[in-house]
Amino acid sequence: MGSEPPVIAQLREVSVDYRGRRAVGPVSLELARNEIVALVGPSGCGKSTILRLIAGLEAPTGGEIILGAGPGETSVVFQAPTLMPWASAAANVALPLELSGVVKEVARGRANEALSRVKLPDKGHYKPAQLSGGMAMRVALARALVSNPKLFLMDEPFAALDEITRRALADDVLTLWTASGPSIVFVTHNVEEAVYMAGRVLVMTPAPGRLSGSVTVDAPIPRPADFRTSEVFRRSVEAVSRLLDAGQDAAA
Amino acid sequence: MRRALEFLAPAATILLLLGVWEVACRAMRVPVYLLPGPSQIIRAAAADLPVLAMSAGNTLIMALSALVIASALATSLALALGASPLLERAVKPIAIGFQVTPIVAIAPLAVIWAGLEHSERAIVGLAAIVAFFPVFSGTLTGLKSADPDLERLFDLYGARRWQRLFRLRVPAAVPYILEGHKVAAGQALIGGVVAEFVARTGQSQGLAWRILEASHNLETPRLFAALFTLAVMGGLLFAVLQGLEAVALRWWRGR
Fold first, then answer.
1. How far apart (Å, rounded) are the C-alpha atoms in residues A34 and A6?
2. Distance CA B173, CA B67 (A)
3. Helix, strand or coil for residue A3?
4. Average pLDDT of chain B, as a whole number
5. What CATH number is associated with residue B74?
6. Cis preceding-peptide flag for A26 (omega within 30 of 0)
7. What's the pLDDT score for residue A121?
8. Most-buried pick from A107, A151, B198, B225 (CB within 10 A)?
9. How far apart are CA A34 and CA B59, in angstroms?
10. CA-based nearest residue to A139, from A80, A63, A184
């Protein structure tokens, strides 16, 4: 305890080229342990690519990535729930554990606990087609959290959901973060969502995406009930919007 | 009401066509050996019922045996190929070669190899060759159909090759495998009948032989009776497999 490095992921001058064309970078950033960071930027700027780089699902063309999370300590939630349609919710949630060799009975027990944490205590035997979009996303969250990851990555996780469900899930993620405290990086194109959830919002330029600035959101997590109408929220949203606009103007 | 209409519409169309056929044959006094009316075909079928039933049973057994053999070989080979892209590149051209070679061209060889006294083996073998490709192709396509993000999650969780195959790719392939079997069942029946035509030994005593026999004797009503039995059997086989597919998919999806 206490010997863990304070930085869980570090990108040093990282760039990605596709067919000889620069798609992302160079980007340098540090992610502190227990920090929640949002990546905001226009479509196609490479937000999701940066997420895949941190997850180790893609290799950079240039630069260096240093990770403080070992194998099995990183979880990803995609834009769609990405559940196995043939498997029950509990079997989906238990997947990371079972793949790493945890005995099925133990894995299913922990999966049911994780489902309770995302407010689906009695839906373990349901198949994905029997769940609503919001419920399926909660199952995906439970799957990502069941192995107590140190690094939790989300790629526009609530983009396909209605506003009420989005807000409820954002609060759920923050409550879960309070309980287990993984470092979270999430990609979104929704400035309000970024400010509501993140301690730090990183803004990217249009492609090839680079970081154009960062905004620190100075408010406790979980957020106070009146946070969305607070001065801090309004100022933070304005600051992020200004950075986004500046990036667009520079690209034009 | 709508369901009843959906059932009645095709039934009424068939009855109407049979009626027109019967009236036209009688009105134009068409010779029986050329085109018998439906009533004459029904009489021939009733008289031939035991023989037709036995022949239909033989054809069905040959087709189902071929389907089982094709299914076992095609799914095993597709699984092996799905686990190794290099093996897929090596074997796929041969499988496609079998598919594009007309069954009638291979049939004489198969009959010689099976031995003239075992023509039913040649028929089952040939029908299995025809039924092989839909299952093989469906399974291979299905194994590659898993959601790419699920494949990424399996990467992230450090899944082993066999875990990825049996926990992701095989279950994802189930709808494709079922569809492949549905097509293959019809192909097995067609393959079996074509092979029986080519073998021409009469040893297999299937429906194709009944058709050949009736054709040689110019007993056209009996020929039609065998033909319709074949069509009805093919339709029933398709319906049964479609029903099984629907049940299996409902289980697969959970609804």
1. 9
2. 19
3. coil
4. 87
5. 1.10.3720.10
6. yes
7. 85
8. B225
9. 69
10. A80
Taking the Cβ of residue B253 and every Cβ of chain A, the question of whether any pair is shorter than 8 Å is answered with yes
Q: Is residue B192 part of a domain?
A: yes
- Identify the residue with better confidence: A35 or A25: A35
A177-218 pLDDT, tens digit each: 877 778 889 898 888 888 888 888 998 888 788 888 888 888
Number of domains in chain B: 1
* B45 part of a folded domain: no
Cα–Cα–Cα angle for A97, A98, A101, nearest 5°? Answer: 95
User: How much is the ipTM here?
Assistant: 0.80
| Close Cβ partners of A234 (under 8 Å, ≥ 6 residues apart) | none
Residue A1: pLDDT over 70: no
Calpha distance A6→B162 (Å, rounded): 37
Let me know if residue B244 belongs to a domain: yes
Please say whether the beta carbons of B154 and B164 come within 8 A.
yes
Gap between the Cα atoms of A38 and A156, Å rounded:
10
Give pLDDT tens digits for B87-124.
888 888 887 887 788 878 888 888 888 777 777 888 89
Q: How far, in whole angstroms, is CA A75 from its chain's centroid?
A: 9
Task: Find which of A61-65, A171-175, B68-72 is predicted with most confidence, using mean pLDDT.
Answer: B68-72
Lowest mean pLDDT among A28-32, A105-109, A116-120, B240-244: A116-120
CA–CA separation, A67 and A53 (whole Å): 10
pTM, entire model: 0.81
Determine the structural domain holding residue B138 and report its residue range: 55-254
pLDDT value of residue B95: 79
Stretch B143-154: mean pLDDT = 91
Chain B neighbors of A86, CB-CB under 8 A: 171-172, 174, 252-253
* Alpha carbon of A182: minimum distance to chain B alpha carbons (Å): 17
Q: How far apart are CA A135 and CA A83, in angstroms?
A: 11
Q: Which residues contact A122 (CB under 8 A, 6 or more apart)?
A: none
Tokens of A211: 């970081």
Q: What is the CA radius of gyration of chain A?
A: 18
- Rounded Cα–Cα distance for residues A142 and A113 (Å): 9
AA identity, residue A232: V
Residues of A in contact with B150 (CB under 8 A): 82, 84
A110-to-A4, A92, A145 alpha-carbon distances in Å: 26, 12, 10
Amino acid at B218: L
Q: Which residue has the tokens 């995609």?
A: A78
pLDDT at A3: 57
Q: Please judge whether A86 and B150 are an interchain contact, meaning their C-beta atoms are less than 8 angstroms apart.
A: no
Distance in Å, alpha carbon of A85 to nearest chain B alpha carbon: 6
Adjacent-strand bridge partners of A7: A32
- Of B155, B167, B174, nearest to A57 by CB-CB distance is B155
Contacts of B252 in chain A (CB under 8 A): 85-86
E strand segments, chain B:
none
Asked whether residue A65 carries a pLDDT value surpassing 80, the answer given is yes
